Amino acid sequence: MNQANVIYEGKAKYLLKSDNEDEVIVYFKDDATAFNGVKKDNIASKGILNNKITTIIFKYLIKNGIKTHYLKTLNDREQLCQKVTIIPLEFINRNIVAGSMAKRLGVEEGTKLTRPIKEISYKCDELNDPLLNDDHAIGLGIVSEEDLMYCYEEMLKINNLLIKLFDSINLILVDFKIEFGFNKDNEILLCDEFSPDNCRLWEKDTMKKMDKDVFRRDLGNIIDTYTIILEKLEGLGEIENV
Questions:
Q1: Is there a smaller number of Cβ atoms within 10 Å at the N or the C end of the chain?
Q2: d(CA 191, CA 87)
Q3: Radius of gyration (Cα) for the chain, nearest Å?
């Protein structure tokens, strides 16, 4: 990778210049972080696994009507994507209580929710990505009400599609965190990635954690875990719908 082409470095990815000013190359790093960067490690091949998993997920979502920034996978670590202006919010969907929600509300982890809960947090590492409500996001001018409602609608569609997908490989989609951004035509697109780094997946039969909690909580080998997820998804072949 040519450092001269780096536009931005995040915790798990680089954004690189491409030959087209309306496109960028997303490079998946091997870095693993947790607790807003407090816990860090470099784990060989993690970026390759996340690239491959994200490729499968994004292709599946695109075939089912979700607009994403993804254009094509270039190699083991790189994707060509539309250049976007990120909405500085993290959109969180929760189907089952886990992680920070369990701690924050004192609810037992594993409690099934009567309906999905949507949350948003302000993308700001210095402030530890604080939770916001809709009025905060709209009143502070972070996002318009119309665009916020659109993102929520897309997140619900994504949730429904991925619940079915993961159920087909004997996994429960516990929760996930996604990002959206505007392309040059002012369309809102799903961005970033979708991998075990930004969602929670539990085995249906054993409730075994199959996501970044393996790293967060020292529960095992993250590469072995992500490899199992990839192999399960690859075993579905060319997935259009489930």
A1: N
A2: 10
A3: 17
Q: Which helix (H) or strand (E) holds 156?
A: helix 145-167
Strand locations in 21-132, DSSP E? 23-28, 31-34, 39-42, 70-73, 78-82, 85-86, 89-96, 112-122, 131-132
**Quick one: how far is CA 117 from the chain centroid?**
16
CA dist list (Å): 148 to 125, 134, 184, 192: 21, 8, 19, 18
Angle, helix 145-167 to helix 46-63, in steps of 10 degrees = 110
The amino acid at residue 110 is G
DSSP letter at 235 equals T
CA angle (84, 79, 92) in 5-degree steps: 55
Quote the pTM value.
0.94
Quick check: 59 pLDDT over 80? Answer: yes
Residue with the two structure tokens 């569609």: 157
* pLDDT at position 39: 66
Q: Please give the Cα distance from 12 to 16 (Å, whole number).
A: 13
pLDDT band of 33, cuts 50, 70, 90? confident
